[in-house]
Amino acid sequence: MDFFAEQDRARRAGRWLLLGFGCALAACIVLVYLALLPMTAGEYGEEIALWQPGLFLIVALAVGGVIGGGSAWKVAALAAGGGEAVARTLGGRLVARNTTDAAERRLINLADEMAIAAGIPAPPVYVLEDETAINAFAAGDHPRAAVVAVTRGALDRLTRDELQGVIAHEFSHILNGDMRLNMRLVGVLHGLFMLAGAGRVLLRSGGGRSSGKDKNGLVVLGLVLVVAGYLTGLAGRLVRAAVSRQREFLADASAVQFTRNPQGLLGALHKVAQQASGLAHGQGEAVSHMLFDGRSSASALRSAGGLLATHPPL
């Protein structure tokens, strides 16, 4: 297996896909600008100039401000507490480095080995004691604030080589900044949907005490913002899912680089394919995009034929 070639392919595909977010933002600005053009007509029906730099600048700043503000708030909220907060929320227990439990000792050793292979500090390791399925995740917006968590099912049911492959996969997410990238993509999506929220507020305002041209203008602008926000938000979700799938391919190829043993990761994936999906914890669906086994029945129902799936097929 040429794992370096696979890593390069996944990175190139991911970079091209990220341009899709820029296209979604640009399309949103253009839609709002075009919708506002008819409102610039005078009382006597003068011909409307298609290019009005001043109006375009105002629209770009207003739309960019709403999306940017919403994105910044969401990213800050996601980053609060770091990876340790995510692990504890899911019922994780920190594994002491001096543990005498054989399974936990093996886990610590594997984490140290993969930290050396990846060239990053060994992160804290958590075990999700109440989870019997095979799963794992890495969380945190920076390598020095990251954690790795595995389920009790992974500890009990995977061989050393298989568990090493899973841990190596998660270390790739840390090394390649996938957690930070995902938070930013989620933030942009939140900003796009906030634009739709602003449109709903304008629609309600338009149905209030405003009258005449002002009322019609508010209603039209609100409707445009709702449509633009939801359409570009859907496009953003499709792009985010495609980026996530490429990062999963990158993590697989990096895991083979770190371990030099594709059979370990392959064996773990075979066992994952034979089990029920997701986590038993109530928050499992919310963090499914972070998991080694990111399948869930709810996600599958919304995946639009796999286009919104965050993981490639097993």
Question: Your description of this structure?
Answer:
This protein has two domains: 3-80 and 178-266 and 290-301, no CATH class; 84-175, Metalloproteases ("zincins"), catalytic domain (Zincin-like, 2-Layer Sandwich), CATH 3.30.2010.10. Helix content is 64%, strand content 5%. The chain contains ten helices and four strands, in the order H-H-H-E-H-E-E-E-H-H-H-H-H-H. A hairpin with a 7-residue loop joins strand 3 (136-139) and strand 4 (147-151). Helix 1 (3-36) packs across helix 2 (53-79). The two termini are 18 Å apart. Residues 297-303 have low confidence and may be disordered.
Provide a quick synopsis of the model:
By secondary structure, the chain is mainly alpha-helical. The chain is built from 10 helices and 4 strands; from the N terminus they run αααβαβββαααααα.
